[in-house]
Amino acid sequence: MADRLRADLVAAGYTVDGVLDRVGAAAHAALPHDGGAAVRHVLRETSDPCAVLIRAWTLGEPVAGTHLAGALPRTGLTGLTSLGLIAPAGAGRVRATCDVRPYAVQSGAGVLDTWLVSDFGESVIGGPLPPDHVLGVGGASLTLSSWTPRTAVGRALDLGTGCGVQAVALARHADQVVATDLDERALRYARLTAALAGQTWDLRQGDLFEPVTGERFDLIVANPPFVITPRTSEVPRYTYRDGGRAGDELMGTLIRACVDHLEPGGVAQFLGNWEIPVGADHWSHRPEAWLADTELDAWVIQRDVAEPAEYAHTWIRDGGHRPGMAGYQELTDAWLDDFARRAVAAVGFGVLTVSRPGAVGAAGSSGDRSPYRVFEEVLTPVAEPMGPAVAAGLAARRWLADHPEAAVLDRAWRCAPDVLEERYGVPGAADPAVIRLTQGGGLRRTVTLDTVGAAVIGVGDGSLTAGQALTAVCAILREDPCAHRAQVIDLLRTLIADALLIPADGVPTPGG
Fold first, then answer.
1. pTM for the complete prediction?
2. Of the residues 76, 91, 169, 341, which has the fewest C-beta atoms closer than 10 A?
3. pLDDT < 50 positions in the chain
4. Per-residue DSSP letter, 240
């Protein structure tokens, strides 16, 4: 039956591009903010198939049964009822029981037009969300999808799949997808999401890693229920965002468990929150503590930070409560008291990428080594998607960790295609006052160079190793190469780690 429905949806034009064309860019952009008012204005007094489906499954409005049956002739009302997607609304009308939203997945295999099945959002429900609400696609899930590396893998795990946003994308580059969730309702939605995508996932119910005890994966992704929620009875416990732990301990539990569930060389990609205690030396205090007793490599990027009052307002409002509504003040008090008890100064949000080092003896590996740990704050816009930059950064950092520092001098490097050199100087001056490299993709880094560093990078056409380039440049400048060696090594390692420099021979860095 899902195959018939998929064919009907495509024929009706109920796809991402089809809906955009039908309602127009302005109304489509307003949809998340105006409760669908602009879309209703565009669709008034129309009953074409796409308009009927938008009313039913995007806006959650009752529609004439004859109109819906006409829009989906292969499936019909009987088929929709058997799938649990509609219910009678009286007077010959029917109402959708859930949100069926067009979604497009882009990958190296092309674009997959599919649909996500979830609960209706706040604008349709018309009030606070129920605790067992199953979220559709949102900002956090899109962020995680953008940051996930899309290299081909054997086994992938979508931990806390919800309606299946991440699993749909994983199935495009993984041989097997296991998707878990604590909530049986979420798994029912995920099962239909998979069917509409024409995909097969191994769906399992349980908390965190419990359903995959003893199993390992090449890639783990999770948009976990990381919201820091007071453990008091008056605060609603939303399954999709509350992990059932005090403070930010859920994230610590996830990170530490990766040791047992990642294959050698495997990667885990999480979104998460972390508390920043009063008096902490650095925002990374908590993530560093989670990683302290593990051998995992880690790259943690803080993308936003909120003070307790701002954080409380964000998540109280997310549940459908507004200032002035009954209970809003009590919820605020509960959140702020909870933060005060643990002396929390702020809450960070960001992306945590952890990796299990490769097996001893693997190509390019030096065997026993210390894990690398990178903690950085990037509050500025980044490229979309970020997955390719994450994959490149992981490969480069792993190579750097597996090799002696000076090994960068024994290899030829070149600037990545998205890197430009900028020079600034006083008009008429013989030399520029500032030389820097700027990265167009990834994290859009900017690195300032000195004269020797700029020259070494500038001659990187693949014909010389970095060490040979340093010797040649210093000969021209009449400088001692030994005097610049350490500084150039540091510069090269920075540029390689951040993917501004890539191997000139095209061989991926992990292979040596």
1. 0.92
2. 91
3. 360-366, 510-512
4. T
